[in-house]
Design brief:
- There is one protein chain.
- This protein has about 290 residues and is an all-alpha fold.
- The chain has two domains: about 140 residues, no CATH class; about 130 residues, no CATH class.
- Helices cover about 75% and strands about 0% of the residues.
- It has 16 helices and no strands.
- The protein is globular, with a radius of gyration of 21 Å.
Length: about 290
């Protein structure tokens, strides 16, 4: 999730101030987004809170936005190296949420899933053995019960997301006959691969669309079954890799792969339990010994 946050910052580094500054000449601006938020609730986090606080200290809008960007970049870096892990996780979630909500008219799925991942990270047992915090000070015994609860909730969350995503797609005819798949891969700015190249694969588009439906709707069932778990896991990972490479949605593909590994990586690849041991894995090794 630290890498996801860094990628998010790097992708917006050239347009951060222009994206979030107040500009009445722009059809979509932070003021409009935050006005929509105010209609929903005054308590939804937003960058406007920082700007108002900075104004009280005599700081202009651009300065506050640059400071916010530097803080977001710093929290992502701290998460990557595992320094001040808990504080960095809380700050990263709050700052990212503020940025996403202040641009909520221009956001899409990757921003929501990144916020979800950072939210779970706040409650996850930290630090792990590869974090600098682990070297800097002797950490307490890991709370395996809390780790199990966090992972179980994330597993159920991911299952619900995939099921309803697939169910929504299946209600129309577009994913069954391939037209929705065609529109997704040929509409700007996602048309990285020319349409004439996809035209060669037109007969296969309905099969690809149905394959997506099967993967997503079947996820809550087959990811739990031992015989089908690896197939479904690799199928979903391959689907997100394909989305990233063919549509340019690299951040979306990356965060979904991260969440899948966080939720089911230990079940699919038990060898990972030796790296990040869970309570279940420790009990199983004790029984075997």
């Amino acid at each position: 999730m630290g890498l996801q946050l860094l990628f998010f910052c790097f992708s917006l580094r050239a347009n951060w101030v222009s994206l979030f500054e107040s500009d009445p000449t722009q059809p979509v601006s932070r003021d409009l987004s935050e006005a929509v938020l105010n209609a929903q609730s005054h308590f939804i986090p937003r960058l406007g809170w920082f700007i108002e606080g900075g104004a009280a200290l005599g700081l202009n809008e651009s300065t506050v936005l640059n400071i916010t960007f530097a803080l977001l970049l710093s929290t992502g870096s701290l998460l990557v190296i595992g320094l001040f892990s808990r504080s960095a996780a809380v700050a990263a979630w709050f700052l990212h949420l503020c940025a996403v909500k202040s641009a909520n008219l221009m956001t899409y799925g990757v921003d929501n899933f990144a916020t979800i991942g950072l939210f779970y990270l706040m409650f996850a047992p930290l630090p792990d053995r590869f974090a600098l915090d682990y070297v800097r000070k002797k950490p307490p015994q890991p709370n395996h019960d809390r780790a199990d609860v966090c992972q179980r909730v994330l597993q159920l969350h991911i299952c619900i997301v995939y099921f309803f995503s697939g169910l929504t797609k299946s209600l129309g005819i577009g994913w069954w006959n391939g037209t929705s798949f065609w529109r997704a891969i040929t509409s700007p700015p996602y048309d990285i691969i020319p349409a004439h190249t996809w035209a060669i694969l037109t007969p296969a588009l309905p099969l690809l669309g149905i394959g997506v439906l099967v993967l997503e709707i079947g996820y809550p069932v087959f990811i739990w079954l031992r015989r089908t778990r690896l197939i479904w896991f690799l199928g979903v990972i391959a689907m997100h890799v394909a989305i990233g490479l063919t549509m340019g949605l690299y951040l979306f593909a990356f965060v979904m792969i991260v969440l899948n590994f966080a939720a089911f990586g230990l079940k699919v690849f038990p060898i990972l339990d030796k790296i990040t041991p869970t309570k279940a894995g420790i009990l199983q090794r004790r029984r075997q010994s």
